[in-house]
Amino acid sequence: MQIFDTTLRDGAQREGITYSVADKLAVARLLDQFGVGFIEGGWPGAVPKDTEFFERARTELELKNALLVAFGSTRKAGVAAADDAQLAGLLAAQTPVVCLVAKSDVRHVERALRTTREENLAMVADSVTHLRSHGRRVFVDCEHFFDGFRFDPDYTASVVRTALDAGAERVVLCDTNGGMLPSQVGAAIADLVARLGVSPELFGMHAQNDTACAVANTIAAVEAGVRHVQGTANGYGERPGNADIFAVVANLQLKLGMTVLPDGCLEQMAHVSHAIAEIANIAPDSHQAYVGSAAFAHKAGLHASAIKVDPALYNHVDPAVVGNDMTILVTEMAGRASIELKSRELGLDLAGHPDTLSKVTHRVKELEAAGWSFEAADASFELLVRQSLGEQTTPFTLESYRVIVEHREDGAVVSEATVKLRVRGERVIATAEGNGPVNALDQALRQALERHFPQLSGLELADYKVRILAGSHGTDAVTRVLVETVDTDGRDWTTVGVHENVVEASWRALVDALAYGVAAAGGDRKVRSRR
User: Fold this and answer.
1) If DSSP codes are grouped into helix, strand and coil, which group holds residue 131?
2) Is the CB of residue 444 less than 8 Å from the CB of residue 417?
3) Any idea where the Pyruvate carboxyltransferase domain is (predicted)?
């Protein structure tokens, strides 16, 4: 089975993605780490950035698993292959493999290329022969294959036959418009095999995702005998995207039992997926199959009860085989099993404390009903469990805090906060200004605590979210605040606060964040980075 990745060419056509040459080199290294066999790097000669990529790749890339592929079109109509500038650019890229795109829908031949059926066949044959004569392995992407095959199967099949006869190693059947369904893909391949009398192993599959069937269509093609599949990291691509190469590979290896990656590479999947998302500057899809942070997240108490007995009862595969983790979500749906499993995940074993387990379960349901959400706030949940176990989790006692917001005559708005605390037997008063009441409160709290807990200087408030809870209205609405904090080691955690007053809700989340940070810096917490 050939695994052909086109993240750097087709995937880069997604709206919002603009790779620099350095980005493309970094993505290529990650794809090679994942173990794909072919990495399509772009269109040399047509795109200057891609030309530079191939030039730099020759000296800067040391690929262990993959071969680089240059992509381009067949020769122009009426131009000899030896004189065609596009083919010259492909040869200049010096890749061992070239992928040519060819028209296989007669409507595109006549209306887009504005040439004859016969000339199009000659363009395919001449281009493949020319590249093969220079020692290149050649794949041919038959653009709009499925649409063309439905319209005029005889002509589309003749394009495939021409490419094979000229020496193409694989002819890739492209669902360019993404309109096919799995049953249609399987039927078309069976028909093509019968017409040409060749093995389906000579064909490849390239699926777009316009019907949300790109992965399913790719698997259907493999089940029809195809032995070359194309896709992109995270399904990036034009319009709704391409077949997600990670889902395709995982399905082939874990569901169909086909060994398609070198040993040890499948476990790199989640890491590679997220790293490429960072380079593309696109937030990872938490609900993406196999690699998303929620791919193995369980919320219902019924699930947790079964998982406690055997994780395989509610996981279709072991998350570890694709480099992911199982997560138990704590919500109002949580039962005792969910609370026990989540606590164990955080390093706390409540199995030997049945009374505490019942107490925490009841308290979580009570707080969730009041608007709290522990699903995204593991740190606040852990603090709640530790408090229930009798631990002192807050390193100070609040006497009072006060926040003043002053709107001055010149239009300036200044926030000032004062906190009065008792820390290790000492009464501490601190005042600070900020660009808003929450920022001022955060600064004052840190100022009051940092002399006793210098590790707080390394903590940074990374994100602050405010949400008005459903069913509440106007300025007296109940507010939920989520605070994300990060330390100098890149570890991050989220805390939650709820109150009718947004400042009080923020205060509660801030206190949990700093309390958790103090303990984490002291080695008392199993902080797990999500980065």
Assistant:
1) helix
2) yes
3) 1-267
Q: Give the ranges where 46-105 is alpha helix by DSSP (H).
A: 48-60, 85-92
- The average pLDDT across 140-162 equals 98
Residue 474 region by backbone torsions, left for phi larger than 0, else alpha for psi between -120 and 50, else beta: left
Report pLDDT digits (tens) over 25-37: 999 999 999 999 9
432: left (phi over 0), alpha (psi -120 to 50) or beta: beta
* Number of alpha carbons in the 13 Å side-chain half-sphere of residue 277: 19
CA angle at residue 396 from 392 to 401, to 5 degrees?
A: 135
Compute φ and ψ for 138, nearest 5 degrees.
-125, 130
Q: Are 137 and 169 in contact (CB under 8 A)?
A: yes
Across residues 510-519, what is the average pLDDT?
88
d(CA 148, CA 154): 9
SS3 490: coil
Residue 52 phi, psi (nearest 5)? -65, -40
**Contact by Cβ (8 Å): 487, 531:** no
pLDDT top residue among 494 and 400 = 400
Mean pLDDT to the nearest integer, 451-458: 87
Q: What pLDDT is stored for residue 194 in this prediction? A: 98
Residue 278 has pLDDT above 90, yes or no: no
30 phi-psi bin (left φ>0, alpha ψ -120 to 50, beta other): alpha
Under 8 Å between Cβ of 34 and 265 = yes
DSSP 46: T
Q: Give the number of other CB atoms < 10 A from CB of residue 490.
A: 9
Q: What are phi and psi of 273, to 5 degrees?
A: -60, -50
pLDDT at 530: 38
Q: Which has the higher per-residue pLDDT, 198 or 302?
A: 198
Helix (H) or strand (E) segment spanning residue 496: strand 492-499
CA dihedral of residues 378, 384, 387, 389 (deg, nearest 10): -80
For residue 525, name the pLDDT band (cuts at 50, 70, 90).
very low
What pLDDT does 312 receive?
58
- Tell me the C-alpha distance between 338 and 129, whole Å: 63
Distance, CA of 72 to CA of 89 (rounded, Å): 9
The DSSP secondary-structure symbol of 523 reads T
Distances (CA, A) of 90 to 13, 26, 45, 85, 124: 20, 22, 7, 9, 15
Alpha helices per DSSP H over 180-319: 182-196, 214-223, 245-250, 269-280, 301-309
State the average pLDDT over residues 59-65.
95
Rounded distance between C-alpha atoms, residue 116 and residue 129, angstroms: 20
For residue 480, which phi and psi values (nearest 5 degrees)? -110, 135
d(CA 291, CA 273): 7
Q: Comparing 521 with 251, which gets the higher pLDDT?
A: 251
User: How many Cα atoms sit within 13 Å of 500 on the Cβ side?
Assistant: 5
- Cβ pair 130, 86 in contact under 8 A: no
Would you list the DSSP string of 236-269?
--STT-B-BHHHHHHIIIIIS----S-TT-GGGH
Alpha helical stretches, state H, 314-413: 336-345, 354-369, 378-388
